[in-house]
Amino acid sequence: MIQDRPALLLAAHGAGRPQAMAGVDNVVALARAAFPHAEARLCLTAEAVRRALAKSTGAEPPPGPLLALAQLREEGFREVVVQPLHIFAGSEFMDLTALCQGLAGVQTLDPAHRPFDLLVVGRPALGQPGPRHPYLEDIERAAQALAGDVEMARAEGAALCYAGHGNKRFSTGVYQELQALMGRLYPETPCLVGALDGLLGLDHVRRGLAGLGAGKVLLVPLLLVAGGHAVRDICGQGVDSWAGALAADGLTVRCLSRGLGEVDAFARLFIDHARDAAQDAGFAL
């Protein structure tokens, strides 16, 4: 039976431990509240995370994107927004977009046999290149959503340092643009943005903090969830973690081991981008 309402598929990398999924769960809850007319569901873009989550919970995890879309198709949903819960347009976002573009481009003699009437993809939190939605405006809105972190750092007399995931296939220059906009919006609080993968790594951050003459730093994962990277690589106790390395440099380090999805102001960026994607395609969620 053809559904008379749209579907919203939220696509997250996810986390292998259920307690680390709080950031994802919060975005899903906010989306369902924002779009009560739409069918809002979750899929996980990382197969390894799905396996780890199944192992840790003993339950069936959320499906991957292809299965989730197939399920929506079989249930009669013809208008679908896929909203990535990625921070920036990296490799997982590009692969998800390619999958959706492939399905959206299927042409059949009978229109009823097409996978969907409309299948569109929203922007990640920090936006993406393109003429319709200037990505610098998206970055500025993300910086505004991080005002609570700035206030914490200011109250502690600390520099603010974000550790994003990054990647080795795409430019991580968007992190530098976020850092620049944070400096413009909050000039009284020094802010650095680095990445676990890519050019702007831990050495970049250490040099930046040394140049600032910082004695304290508030270290925050620039990640949707506080999963393995946050707990181990960023906020871990060992000297090979960011927190351990900065402490070895003589800094007083406090880690905010929290996913950005748990921050309502940041989570709502994804809600706004899903709404934009539907409106751009000519329908409403």
UniProtKB/TrEMBL annotation:
<dbReference type="Pfam" id="PF06180">
    <property type="entry name" value="CbiK"/>
</dbReference>
<feature type="active site" description="Proton acceptor">
    <location>
        <position position="165"/>
    </location>
</feature>
<keyword id="KW-0479">Metal-binding</keyword>
<dbReference type="GO" id="GO:0016852">
    <property type="term" value="F:sirohydrochlorin cobaltochelatase activity"/>
</dbReference>
<feature type="binding site">
    <location>
        <position position="165"/>
    </location>
    <ligand>
        <name>Co(2+)</name>
    </ligand>
</feature>
<feature type="binding site">
    <location>
        <position position="229"/>
    </location>
    <ligand>
        <name>Co(2+)</name>
    </ligand>
</feature>
<protein>
    <submittedName>
        <fullName>Anaerobic cobalt chelatase</fullName>
    </submittedName>
</protein>
<keyword id="KW-0170">Cobalt</keyword>
<dbReference type="InterPro" id="IPR010388">
    <property type="entry name" value="Anaerobic_Co-chelatase"/>
</dbReference>
<dbReference type="GO" id="GO:0019251">
    <property type="term" value="P:anaerobic cobalamin biosynthetic process"/>
</dbReference>
<dbReference type="GO" id="GO:0046872">
    <property type="term" value="F:metal ion binding"/>
</dbReference>
